[in-house]
Amino acid sequence: MYATTDIYPVSDFNRKPAEHIKRLKETRKAEVLTVNGKAAVVMVDPKSYDRLMQDADLLKTLKTIAIANEQHENGQSQPAKEVFEELKKELKSKFQND
After folding, report:
1. Which residues lie across from 38 on neighbouring strands?
2. Going by CATH, does the domain composed of 7-44 fall within 3.30.160?
3. Most buried of the four, 20, 49, 68, 77, by CB within 10 Å?
4. Mean pLDDT by 10-residue block, N- to C-terminus, for the chain (98 residues)?
């Protein structure tokens, strides 16, 4: 879990939003806003958010590749040529009247 030292009460943000926005842009570090002493939201600047989303997409892709690799190693895959032949037969049977 990521721990940040930039923790502020939401009331501080409400009083000085410009300060928080400026700090976010300059440091690119996430800020945690609290309500009644408990974390309520995490704020990040747009560039950092974009980077996080790109990293999440990459992680999802890597996970998919790892699953596919594991399935291949366990003999749960088919050669592409066989898959395309099956698809071709299926499509021909569905659209033979067109």
Report:
1. 35
2. no
3. 20
4. 81 97 93 96 95 97 97 94 94 84
